[in-house]
Design brief:
The chain has 366 residues and is of the alpha+beta class. β2 and β3 form a beta hairpin. It is built from 15 helices and 6 strands.
Length: 366
Amino acid sequence: MFRTQELEINMGPQHPATHGVLRLLLTLDGETIVGMKPIIGYLHRGVEKLSETRTYPQIIPYTDRLDYVASFAENHSYVGAVEKLLGIDPPPRAKYLRVILAEFQRIASHLLWLATHALDIGAMTIFLYTFREREKILDLFEAYCGARLTYNAVRIGGMPFDLPDGWVDAAKRMLDEFPVRLQQYETLLTNNRIWRKRTEGIGVIDADTALAWGLTGPSLRGSGIDYDVRKHLPYEVYDELDFDVPVGERGDTYDRYLVRMEEMRQSRRIILQALENLPDGDVMTRVPKRIKAPAGAEAYFMTESPRGEMSVYLQADGSDKPYRVRFRSPSFNNLQALPVLSKGHMVADVIALIGTIDIVLGCVDR
């Protein structure tokens, strides 16, 4: 008479923690998760196929709509692939500008992650604190390219603009304040017993399992794997800059939190070095007005986006449009491990686990 029966329920897509576009089919034994199936496609727009009908420069604004809270990283990955396809080398100043903006984008993305992750678990105050600093970074992006979300801020062969007057000083002021702000976040969360109860031992994934599932970025480094594209396959000028790659030990939600917090410090360190060593010169090299790649040419280029390894594959057919365009999304790869992370946990822990892998559904569905 006390026999229990497994129950299947939907979490999402109409759920605040699943961002309205992710459906999780949970199999429950009481409140314990015994199975999960992520169901995607609610935000699918066919960006890869659309890109095959556009010229190489026309595709750049499409990449803004992939990971729309780290648009610069998507611009950067795509343009890098085109430059590799064509053998174009941007000017040194353009490379430094890309690194500076990419690291500001990483900080802004991690601030948004921290705000929403903590808010979903129940910490409201941190949301207000992190948005204070994120706004300052968006102000810098707006001063540079006129946009605050979808930037379209990289060009094939370099950058569209040089830095406006006063930009470097504003950036340094923000970076000077940032360590104090980071300390405020950590005072609120790092040793908060409620935060630790909700994150320690939750979603543990060991190094071998993380590799087997293709995890990348902070989700992989949280399991103790020291892999960062900026270090292992350096691009732009990352090999000229000094920074550390933080890694975790236990591979739980708390470790992934600590990894991202340290990554923000390292991004600040990278930006300050890049600003100090910023060379003079042009920000754009000469490229043909009508960009074409030789038939049969192909390129694969990867960058370290805030969510992990973001890669772009291009294949040319000799025209001014690519024959094939494929994006390797870190959010897509990280999402597939969610059933492994959640098995044996409670329903309430799903909210923490969605936050810990830091997915953006525009990047998942593409």
